[in-house]
Write a structure and sequence with these properties.
Layout lengths: L20 E5 L2 E6 L6 E6 L8 H11 L4 E5 L13 H7 L2 H18 L3 E7 L1 H11 L5 E5 L6 H5 L5 E8 L5 H13 L4 E10 L11 H5 L8
Parallel strand pairs: 3-4, 3-5, 5-6, 6-7, 7-8
Antiparallel strand pairs: 1-2, 2-4
Helix pairs in contact: 3-4
Length: 225
């Protein structure tokens, strides 16, 4: 069960200002940003609040500015979690495991388009989707950001390079569990980057307040591939 931290500080609807656009990739509407001629793509798998979250789109634009073609699909078909909704009931219709099969056609479409290397980053709910893709080697590199639903057995099944960005204050993936993830990756000789960011809570990468100095200081996040 996903805890209350997954619902804290919900994002406002996007008010524009993004540099990308919404296109259909395979069967899913997707926020797309970056040079379409880039041969390296990054798939962003969102948290429960979906692909319209402003800070998620800002992060997509930031990654795109480094030269990547970034795609954030709407895995919820227009039905993200809304403030005040019952997350347990919502998850009955939006479990992360079925989304893995929705992601695969998106990855295929990117490869058919000419992308030669594809990485994926999953936020909270989306981390489970990405770790499953990593276990099946559907992507070349993965990143999990304050993951939910990810188990130690999941991590033991990963064979590709992976980054895990945890939060110091996290009920879903506490630092102790993230350290177990790291130990498993080291034991299995999987190239990894694991870091616990101090002073921040679950959801900090895409659901933060601008006056939170600890979070803002960590926003120079990662380069995937």
């Amino acid at each position: 069960m996903s805890g209350p931290q997954c619902c804290e500080n919900p994002p406002a609807a996007s008010s524009g200002g993004e540099s990308g656009e919404v296109l259909q990739i395979a069967s899913l509407n997707s926020y797309v940003s970056g040079n379409p001629d880039s041969k390296t793509a990054v798939l962003l798998v969102t948290d429960v609040f979906g692909y319209g979250a402003p800070k998620l789109r800002q992060l997509a634009d930031k990654i795109a500015s480094a030269g990547y073609y970034v795609v954030a699909p709407d895995f919820f078909h227009g039905d993200p979690l809304t403030p005040g909704a019952n997350i347990a009931e919502w998850l009955q219709n939006h479990a992360p495991e079925p989304a893995v099969e929705l992601a695969k056609p998106v990855i295929k479409a990117l490869k058919d388009k000419g992308e030669t290397k594809i990485g994926a980053a999953g936020f909270c709910w989306g981390a489970k989707v990405v770790v499953e893709l990593a276990k099946e080697a559907e992507i070349e590199v993965a990143a999990l950001l304050h993951p939910s639903f990810v188990t130690l057995d999941d991590i033991k099944g990963v064979k590709i390079p992976i980054g895990i960005l945890g939060a110091e204050i996290d009920q879903r993936s506490p630092p102790e569990l993230v350290k177990e993830f790291e130990a498993a990756l080291v034991t299995n000789k999987v190239n990894n980057f694991v870091k616990i960011y101090l002073g921040v809570a679950h959801g900090w990468t895409v659901r933060y307040k601008y006056d939170n100095e600890a979070v803002v200081a960590h926003q120079d996040l990662f380069v995937l591939v």
